[in-house]
Design brief:
Structural class of chain B: alpha+beta
Number of strands of chain B: 5
CATH class of chain C: Alpha Beta
Radius of gyration of chain B: 23 Å
Oligomer: heterotrimer
CATH superfamily of chain B: NADH:ubiquinone oxidoreductase Nqo5 subunit
Number of domains of chain B: 1
Distance between the termini of chain B: 44 Å
CATH architecture of chain B: 2-Layer Sandwich
CATH topology of chain C: Rossmann fold
Helix content of chain C: 25-40%
CATH topology of chain B: Beta Polymerase, domain 2
Largest interface: A-B, 43 and 44 residues
Helix content of chain B: 25-40%
Number of helices of chain C: 7
Shape of chain B: elongated
CATH architecture of chain C: 3-Layer(aba) Sandwich
Strand content of chain B: 15-25%
CATH class of chain B: Alpha Beta
Order of helices and strands of chain B: HEEHEEEHHH
Strand order of the largest sheet of chain B: 1-2-5-4-3
Radius of gyration of chain C: 20 Å
Chains: A alpha+beta (368), B alpha+beta (196), C alpha/beta (192)
Distance between the termini of chain C: 82 Å
Chain lengths: 368, 196, 192
């Protein structure tokens, strides 16, 4: 049969983000496939050179829209390393709470995103309703639902409001009590299990060839390779948690690892709320001083563990008030570009959107 | 995991013994960077890969127009001995050519394609480094070079709405205007770095 | 007193009959608008809470629709890069009339935070006509729902005339599109 060209186009109900995949299809099996990135390109790396170091905090959360706090954390850690700033103790613990809440919200969204390609909308409705509660907590802490601009070089912008511990505890207790219900709707639902068991494999040699990190790597290599464990930042070495890993990496194992990470995040938030000390939350600065920072020369790479893998900012300073070059390492760059070209052919057309979802391809961080 | 100071010593021993390193910089206990010559880069990467640095994290370039050089950056990661290694080397800016490394790290194929699109660096050995990846029908110089002005490009190409002037200037006070211009001059002059 | 049985009704002209049918159509149109699912930019992250049970959109009669030929509203959620604009123009011209465009966020109004970027267009209504804007960066979900209710008011007052403007001033829109994009046809030698 002749091959037919199709677009899993930018406008598609099951597609995440604005990217299109060009497919050459023979019957129902995909023969060749290429990702077309670039529809979300805004020129961030050029734009960051035109603003000063602290002004960039308002520009960078927009790099990845579903999980904006990791951008602020990586940028703040890199600037502090170049400047030699010491962040106060309470700020480290507040940063950990914010990062783990952000990880909960994106895992809920990705798990609910299974509902689009498979047609189970109940799961999606439950997940988005819970995610809305997390966005309401963020609005109480920082004033904005999505783009917080809360983690700045030198600490966090202001202290947590009074009474927020009660809201956070109420939310995570409620989520933990409904964990079994979430498992029953998604990963133990017979109609979804038939589509994710033994499909969309990611063997270990493919992981090393592409450079995949995060859950994809841990579920294939059978080791806890997580940046929070291997090179801990911000007091992750003082809380107890484990990074889930598995041996056989099909789609079901990766989703199972995600659900275990949700439980681990809940446990980390509980420990942080107990162990958090009192004190200032930001390095004391003069009026307008951070706008005139001149950062000494240096080249630094600051990695953070996001929900999709190793997310890093490469920052170069020339001694001026603006960065000389900032490079963003998107966590899903390897599996989005080379993975789709080499390892997507062979799946069926119905599973194409599911492939993109379970591999964790997020298009804004590929395009920047 | 092993003691991290001995990891850094291990890497330093490995690289400095076999190659001529122009500059070494230990950034903190988990990161170290080496500046090498352009001809040594491929051999350094092969040595590191055989010693366990199996994952390539990032590949990109930095533009230095004053020295007329472009600096290539390669960042590698080893999950057993947790150290990020940065390998940097400067190449000529007017005709930048760098041999491709996809034989060592196959995942670098798309990084090199993007680097060509944004900086103009050629990578012989990579079969399709000249195709456009992120921009479409681009008609100007590579955007991440320092000579490119994105605001001028935007004003030139994208039509803007006409606004009518429905305000009146009451008085032409030149003193405040001069102070404002002088302040802008001072801010602009600090942007590229302090003058020596 | 004249009874209605034996006096003939006043003859209505063809335009008046058409207008009455159009008003009936507007009543049904504004109470069941279908929105095309196309997430073009950042502000699209506020749409899932609006579509699902948090701020239910279906009580206003709106729901998501998969193809442009059967949708009423094209929702431009956020900024548009040049590559995206070519596809959006294709999609807009495929929709059947009457059709409405809603711009979310500050970026379609005047460029927003990316006004000096080489890849993002500045003002959207130079290229396709826009009926309602919802400003903010990013707007709250309740503001988005408020924007939809405003669009329904506009349809009721017959001021949502974007698609008629596109037909009448087609040359002006086309010349702007050519100046910014080069050409609107998508060349696919990307991978070939």
């Amino acid at each position: 049969m002749k091959q037919m060209k199709l677009f899993l186009g930018p406008q598609h109900p099951g597609m995440h983000g604005n990217a299109s995949v060009h497919l050459y299809v023979d019957g129902d099996i995909i023969k060749r496939s290429f990702l077309l990135p670039g529809m979300l390109h805004r020129g961030f790396e050029k734009g960051m050179e035109r603003h000063s170091w602290v002004n960039n905090i308002s520009l960078i959360p927009r790099v990845c829209v579903v999980e904006p706090d990791i951008n602020e954390m990586a940028f703040a850690m890199g600037t502090e390393k170049l400047l030699g700033l010491e962040v106060p103790e309470r700020a480290h613990w507040i940063r950990m709470i914010i990062l783990e809440l952000a990880r909960l919200s994106i895992h809920l969204m990705a798990y609910g995103g299974l509902g689009g390609p498979t047609g189970n909308y109940t799961l999606m409705y439950h997940a988005h309703a819970d995610r809305n509660s997390i966005l309401d907590i963020f609005e109480q802490i920082s004033g904005h639902r999505v783009y917080h601009q809360y983690i700045v070089p030198g600490g966090v912008r202001k202290d947590l409001p009074k009474g927020i511990e009660k809201d956070i505890h109420a939310f995570i207790d409620d989520l933990e009590s409904r964990y079994e219900e979430y498992r029953d709707l998604g990963i133990e639902n017979p109609s979804i299990v038939a589509r994710i068991t033994d499909t969309i494999m990611l063997p270990a040699d493919v992981v090393w060839e592409l450079g995949v990190t995060g859950i994809g790597m841990r579920s294939a290599v059978n080791k806890p390779y997580d940046i929070r464990k291997v090179m801990p930042y911000a007091r992750y070495d003082q809380v107890e948690f484990y990074a889930p890993f598995a041996d056989y990496s099909d789609a079901r194992a990766r989703i199972d690892c995600k659900l275990q990470e949700v439980l681990q995040s809940i446990s980390i938030i509980r420990q942080c709320l107990i162990k958090i000390p009192e004190g200032p939350v930001r390095v004391p600065l003069g009026r307008g001083q951070s706008m005139r920072w001149t950062v000494p020369k240096g080249y630094v790479y600051s990695p953070v563990e996001s929900s999709r893998g190793e997310f890093g900012y490469y920052m170069v300073s020339n001694g001026g008030t603006n960065p000389w070059r900032v490079g963003v390492r998107g966590a899903s760059y390897p599996q989005g570009l080379l993975g789709i070209e080499k390892y997507m052919p062979g799946t069926r057309l119905d599973d194409a959107a599911l492939w993109v979802d379970t591999m964790g391809v997020c298009s804004p961080e590929i395009d920047r | 995991m092993m003691n991290s100071m001995s990891n850094i010593e291990y890497v330093k021993g490995l690289i400095e013994k076999g190659f001529k390193v122009l500059e070494t910089d230990v950034i903190d206990q988990y990161q170290v960077s080496f500046v090498v010559k352009q001809a040594d880069v491929l051999q350094v990467l092969v040595t590191l890969k055989n010693a366990g640095w199996k994952q390539m994290s990032y590949l990109s370039a930095i533009d230095w127009p004053d020295e007329t050089k472009i600096e290539m950056v390669y960042i590698l990661m080893n999950w057993e001995r947790a150290v990020h290694v940065q390998i940097r080397s400067k190449i000529d800016r007017n005709d930048p050519v760098m041999p491709s490394i996809i034989t060592v790290y196959p995942g670098a194929k798309y990084y090199e394609r993007e680097c060509h699109e944004f900086f103009g660096v050629k990578f012989p050995g990579n079969p399709d480094y000249e195709k456009q990846l992120i921009l479409e029908m681009w008609d100007d110089m590579p955007p991440l070079r320092k000579d490119f002005d994105p605001q001028a490009y935007s004003d030139r190409k994208f039509t803007k709405r006409e606004y009518n002037q429905d305000y009146k200037i009451l008085s032409e006070d030149n003193k405040l205007k001069e102070k404002r211009e002088a302040r802008k001059e001072r801010a602009q002059s600090l942007k590229g770095g302090p003058k020596a | 007193m004249k009874s209605t049985k034996f006096t003939p009704a006043r003859k209505l002209s063809k335009e008046e009959i058409d207008r009455k049918w159009w008003e009936i159509g507007d009543y049904f149109r504004r109470n069941s608008l279908w929105m095309l699912m196309y997430c073009t930019g950042c502000c699209a992250i506020e749409l899932p809470p609006a579509m699902t049970s948090a701020y239910d959109m279906e009580r206003l009669g709106m729901g998501p629709m998969a193809t442009p030929r059967q949708a009423d509203i094209l929702l431009i959620s956020g900024y548009l890069s040049v590559k995206s604009l070519r596809r959006v123009i294709y999609t807009y011209e495929q929709m059947s009339e009457p059709k409405y465009v809603v711009g979310l966020g500050s970026c379609p109004i005047n460029g927003g935070i990316y006004h000096d970027s080489h890849a993002v267009i500045n003002q959207l209504d130079q290229y396709i006509p826009v009926d309602t804007y919802v400003s903010g960066c990013m707007p709250n979900t309740e503001s988005v729902m408020n924007g939809f209710v405003d669009l329904m008011e506009q349809i009721k007052n017959k001021t949502a005339k974007g698609w008629i403007k596109y037909k009448e001033n087609n040359e002006w829109y086309k010349s702007n599109q050519m100046a910014a994009l080069g050409e609107v046809i998508i060349h696919d030698e990307f991978h070939e």
